Amino acid sequence: MKKTTQFKNHYIAIIGGSISGSEAANVLAQNGFRVVVFDMNKLPYGKIEDGLPNWHVNLRDRQIAEIDSKLDQENIRFVPCVKIGNDIDFIDLVNNWGFSAIILANGAWQDRTLQIPSTEKFIDRDIIYQNSFINWFNHKHEHDYFGKNYFIKNNTVVIGGGLASLDVIKVVMIELVKKQLYLKKGIDIDLFTLEKEGILDILQKNNTTLNELGIKKATLVYRRTANDMPLKSPKDERIESVEKAKLVSEKLLNKYVEKYQFNFIPLSIPVKLSEKNGKLSGLILQNVEIINGNVVPIENSFNKVICEMLISSIGSIPEKIEGLNYTNSSLKMRDERDYHVYGFENVFAIGNAVTGRGNIQESKQHGKQMTEIIIDKHLTEDAFEKWLTNHNNQIKSKVKKQLNSIIEQIKIQEIKSEEITQEILNKTAAIHKKLNYTTYKNWIFKNTPIRLEDILKNKDDCKCS
Ligand SMILES: Cc1cc2nc3c(=O)[nH]c(=O)nc-3n(C[C@H](O)[C@H](O)[C@H](O)COP(=O)(O)OP(=O)(O)OC[C@H]3O[C@@H](n4cnc5c(N)ncnc54)[C@H](O)[C@@H]3O)c2cc1C
């Protein structure tokens, strides 16, 4: 692809400014395109801010710095606090804003629904979904946190098997031990130390046990086996590499089980809840077997576990936006399944929004590769001329319908691409004005929440002085 310093005609909207959205914006900006990045939140960091538990300080800060450097460019306008589908109708964005292409980089923010009967009455009390759980964990220390609050209980069961489910069960054990160490022994240990050193070591160092602290271990329930967990990616697709990665995954899980003191139950799926006095008390698990790679329930083979709280970490799916098509839980794509959205000539999707899963590296790569293809195949000058003609025709037919028969013959002016650009600038400037947004840097500075590690550091500094 050739780089240019002049702006190209296409003006592109990106929905979501995190890992994949900022990557796409950067590739487009570097190739001379102008871009508006909409994000529903104040900050464009997506799962990096609200998904990764906050002990991943270095990873978070590195990724945030990278997103900032990608978005803070002359030909990129960041527009925060705008949820497409709520604040701006998606079809309105496609038809009336003047963008010649739209890229969805909105990730996967809706938790997959647990398929167990009668969960509703326990939701957000004894049954919690991962996205809101980690959001609470990451932000509860902020003075202006007004989100949901959770009280973690003994005998919590986490359902899941990916990297995120391990983070979830770590949060459970860390929170329980932190609280009980303080209440029962007066020992105040921060979560960063608990995470780094592990619960077993901290208990031993402080001459205590889970039993003495009154803690009952949490349990991770997975429908496959430990070596099926995606904890280690194979270095290539050869059978030997895949097998090696599986063994490493199993070893890693066993290490986690010991270090963070939780139970692991493989080859099981949750099928029924039990309750006592209106509270969740147990969970019936059905045993399964893996046949040709598929999870197959074994008839009449069940186990019961004590379960006072259940956290579902079975994956996230894209939140549906009205106007787009979905098959089951995935965004419906055209033949070019990797990026081209069904039903639209100029709407594309990248990152978790398409893949529904994956990690930072995969989302970044997908964002970059797909955007390069989109530029080469769909953002040519010919494509722009075609889009402009269509856009003008649409406007003409709309206006014509509104005019009465006497003045029907008046020539309707063609809209020029500069006018379209100006209109986009005006509309986004109006949103910025409402938000009191001046520059990207100022906005980020003003809205980055206080970090827990800084609070703890200040506390330590105060103690010393
Ligand atoms: C608990 C947990 C732990 C993880 N641990 C790791 C790890 O250790 N290593 C790793 O590599 N990966 C990890 N991941 C995965 C990683 O965070 C994601 O794969 C990656 O961040 C996805 O990037 P994305 O840009 O595709 O989506 P997201 O980060 O989800 O970004 C989507 C953006 O779109 C915005 N948005 C959504 N809907 C709208 C809308 N309608 N209008 C406007 N804006 C919208 C959101 O606000 C967000 O900023 C973890 C994920 C979780 C949940």
UniProtKB/TrEMBL annotation:
Pfam families: Pyr_redox_2 (PF07992). Residues 12-168 form the FAD/NAD(P)-binding domain. SUPFAM superfamilies: FAD/NAD(P)-binding domain, Nucleotide-binding domain. InterPro entries: FAD/NAD-bd_sf (IPR036188), FAD/NAD-binding_dom (IPR023753). GO terms for molecular function: oxidoreductase activity. This is NADPH-dependent glutamate synthase beta chain. It comes from Lutibacter maritimus.
